[in-house]
Amino acid sequence: MDFLVLFLLYTLVLLLVVVFICLCSDHIVDAVAQIFHNVVPSWLQHITQNAVHSHCQSRNITFVILHLVLEVAVFAEYSWEILGACLELEFHWFYLLLPYGLLTVNTGFFFFSCVTDPGTITKSNLQQCLQVYSYDEVVFRRNQFCPTCSLEKPARSKHCRVCNRCVQRFDHHCVWVNNCIGALNTRYFLPYLGTLMLMAAYLALLTAAFLLQVVVLSGLMLGSYQDADRQEWATAINFIVQLAATPVSCCICCSQTKRPTNGLNKDMW
Ligand SMILES: [Zn+2]
Ligand SMILES: [Zn+2]
């Protein structure tokens, strides 16, 4: 079975599992909870429940650290494998340094999303918050009080049970920035999401351009390779996709070809 078929099968199974989990999530959670309750010792259940509570139901920096680790991993991969090879292929330095600029801007918005007060409602600013939005008397009604804070609820405000506070124009609690997203930090959170999306799309495009350049310059489409039985095969699209899926291979390919040639050295593959 060749690589493309395996890859398509893997994608299909993954999608089916995701659809299955989405459709049956309630039953799955109930079944897992029941198994967990019957099989796992009570002391371990207690520890697990505390861990889940501390990580999902109260503020903590676990996901902030995970976010930073993932970004470092992505840029280490980019700097280590893609950047040098693209320089060898004479990509313009501006296009190669642009991701670092986006990363700097994104990190700035990320930082401000984390540390800026989202619009906490207190006794001192309550009257001011009550004036901002009018009540629709459908979702937000007058003279309703937060049972936890004992403060009148301004329109479009909501109590965040993770942070234990009422927030003006509450949107959601984001674990990735370990903060609520509300009236005062949406201005940082939306550009953070925008630059994150831009950065991911740009890195994907740059990597695709690099791989395409390697395939074109090496004349890979015209080459051939030998299998384990030393039988020679023409390079088909599935072989190229398999090679492109491992950037290290392409970097080696790039360093071996350097400049365009009319054909491919058959022994190279
Ligand atoms: Zn409240
Ligand atoms: Zn919150």
UniProtKB/TrEMBL annotation:
E.C. designation(s): 2.3.1.225
Main location, first listed in the record: membrane
One GO molecular-function entry: protein-cysteine S-palmitoyltransferase activity
Reactions performed catalytically: L-cysteinyl-[protein] + hexadecanoyl-CoA = S-hexadecanoyl-L-cysteinyl-[protein] + CoA
A Pfam cross-reference name: DHHC
Span of domain Palmitoyltransferase DHHC: 141-258
Spans traversing the lipid bilayer: 61-80, 92-112, 196-222
This protein's record includes keyword Transmembrane: yes
GO cellular component: endoplasmic reticulum membrane; Golgi membrane; plasma membrane
Membrane topology: Multi-pass membrane protein
Gene Ontology annotations of biological process type: protein targeting to membrane
This protein's UniProt keywords: Acyltransferase, Cell membrane, Endoplasmic reticulum, Golgi apparatus, Lipoprotein, Membrane, Palmitate, Transferase, Transmembrane, Transmembrane helix
Compartments, record wording: Cell membrane; Endoplasmic reticulum membrane; Golgi apparatus membrane
Record comment regarding domains: The DHHC domain is required for palmitoyltransferase activity.
Family to which this protein belongs: Belongs to the DHHC palmitoyltransferase family.
Protein name as catalogued: Palmitoyltransferase
